Amino acid sequence: MPGSDADLLRRAQRLDELLAPSLSEDWPNLPVAGGEGAYLYGADGRRYLDFVSGMAACNLGHRHPKVVAAAKAQLDRLIHGPIGVVVYDTLLRASEELARLTPGDLDMFFWGNSGTEAVEGALKLARYVTRRPAFVAFVGGFHGRSFGSASVTTSNVKYRRHYEPLLPAVYHVPFPYCFRCPYRRGGACCDDPFASLDRLFAHVVPPDEVAAILVEPILGEGGYVVPPSDFLPRLRAICDREGILLIFDEIQTGFGRTGEMFAAQTFGVTPDVLVLSKAIASGFPLSAVAASPRLMRQWSAGTHGTTFGGNPVACAAAVATFEALREERVLDNVRARATEAMDRLTALAARSPLIGEVRGRGLMIGVEFVDPDEGGAPNGAAVRRVLEGCLERGLLLYPAGPAGSVLRVIPPLVVSAGQLDEGLRIIEEVVHSLTP
Ligand SMILES: Cc1ncc(COP(=O)(O)O)c(C=O)c1O
Questions:
Q1: Is the whole-model pTM more than 0.90?
Q2: Residues 6 or more apart from 361 whose CB is under 8 A from it?
Q3: Are 258 and 364 contacting, i.e. CB atoms less than 8 angstroms apart?
Q4: Residue 275: phi, psi to the nearest 5?
Q5: Distance of alpha carbon 312 from alpha carbon 78, whole angstroms
């Protein structure tokens, strides 16, 4: 792996002269010379354990050999289509293989490049097919940054400020965030998304004008919030009753992250539309909207498309990703490592008043930090200190939640027991050093 790179370190100092601040002002802008498996190799010559996994895009770790080989082989055959003008092997194989993984009959695909593009596609599909104008989404959801996806996004007001007017006919109801129940009613809080939906349908928008309800099965950017187990089944029932399409945004939860291939399977609910990206191609830009043939066939020819979507190289990487997930029994590793991580982090929470809650499914774990002196208020400052302390010790982590008060723990799904232990020991050490 590459060693230190003084030139890269020096040039990285100019980042704010080269990139728009909207893109570059983030944590920690670590100059890296390369990556392999669970590790990134810093331009400073140090090795970093990567528990961000390319923001959940590199579920197989960095540069999985099978993915690299498939992409290289495809580079020698064909780099670009586009779909519609030509048909190529990796497009067909990616579609055939993805159909084997998706739940129910969600076996037809619209291929795109990015998460936001897939969300836009799902919203357009829903409007086109239902001929209804409105959408319902959840407070705290994150779905992307283009105008349609930003319209359904409320994980943080920064994604909306100065961008209004966004898409009309978008309505938001609370997501069941039991740890910080907006109604402060303890155990009863989880009913309120449904009470809000009832009120919405009775007073604001008739359900027969709602095209789709869009939801992340577990809030990602919004704070790694896991809903009660009956939340998604009840949403499914409402959608069935009202003829509304249920869209799961599994851009972050997909491809093994929650211990099953999709969170739809983790929660036992099949949506009408599944939105996928991130880990689908192990870091190559690719996304997909999956729906049943019955639904997809109503989306008339030529009414939506893209130049680069379903790129041949990205599709080759996707096929290799699906094969590796299966052949290497990655889901077994997720389940084993998830138990170890949850046990250790829960034990840490019991010892530290700075941790209010540890929650998650599979290797999608959030650790919410609180301020014990401020009645348990969100403690983004503590998370910042944890991030910095961990990075100093060679562990890369990233925050979530509107106040940055949730530490997201998203190691690659192929993380070994030893690597997980190494990362958790660093987190424990840093949290202990901060605990009053
Ligand atoms: C759940 C979810 N939806 C949508 C997106 C947007 O994806 P992209 O950044 O590729 O546009 C993200 C990205 O973080 C996400 O986590």
A1: yes
A2: 218, 226, 258, 259, 263, 266, 338
A3: yes
A4: -110, 125
A5: 7
Q: Name the 3-class secondary structure at 190.
A: helix
Distance CA 213, CA 111 (A): 21
- State the pairing for strand pair 273-276/287-291: antiparallel
Using 50, 70 and 90 to split pLDDT, how confident is the model at 186? low
What is the 205 CA–ligand 1 centroid distance (Å)?
Answer: 27
388-397 mean pLDDT = 98
Closest ligand 1 atom to Cα of 119: 4
Buried b (16+ CB within 10 A) or exposed e, 28-49: eebbbbebebbbbbbbbeeebb
Indicate which atom in ligand 1 lies nearest the CA of residue 285.
10
Distances (CA, A) of 317 to 63, 127, 322: 10, 31, 9
Instruction: Report which of 221, 292, 290 is spatially closest to residue 255, judged by C-alpha positions.
Output: 290
Domain boundaries, the chain: 6-63+329-434, 67-327
CA distance 24 to 312: 29
| CATH of the domain spanning 67-327 | 3.40.640.10
Fold of domain 6-63+329-434:
Aspartate Aminotransferase, domain 1 (3.90.1150)
Side-chain half-sphere of 76: how many Cα atoms within 13 Å? 5
What residue's CA is closest to ligand 1, atom 3? Answer: 143
CA–CA dist 22, 16 (Å, integer): 10
Q: Ligand 1 center to residue 137 CA distance, Å?
A: 15
Pocket-testing residue among 252, 253, 275, 410, ligand 1, by greatest number of atoms within 8 A of Cβ: 252
Give the tens place of pLDDT for each residue, 149-166.
999 999 999 999 999 999
Q: Give the helix, strand, coil percentages of the chain, each rounded to 5.
A: 45, 20, 40
1-33 per-position pLDDT tens digit: 777 899 999 999 999 999 999 998 899 999 999
How distant, in Å, are the alpha carbons of 69, 112, 142 from that of 60?
14, 21, 23
Which residue's CA is minimally distant from atom 7 of ligand 1? 115
Give the largest CA-CA distance in the chain.
Answer: 64
| Nearest atom within ligand 1 for CA of residue 146 | 11
Ligand 1, atom nearest to 114 Cα: 10
Among protein residues, the one with the nearest Cα to ligand 1's atom 16 is 252
Backbone angles phi, psi at 30, to 5 degrees: -75, 120
Q: Enumerate residues lining ligand 1, CB below 6 A.
A: 55, 114-116, 119, 142-144, 216, 220-221, 249, 251-252, 277
First to last CA, the chain: 40
Atom of ligand 1 nearest to the CA of 275: 3
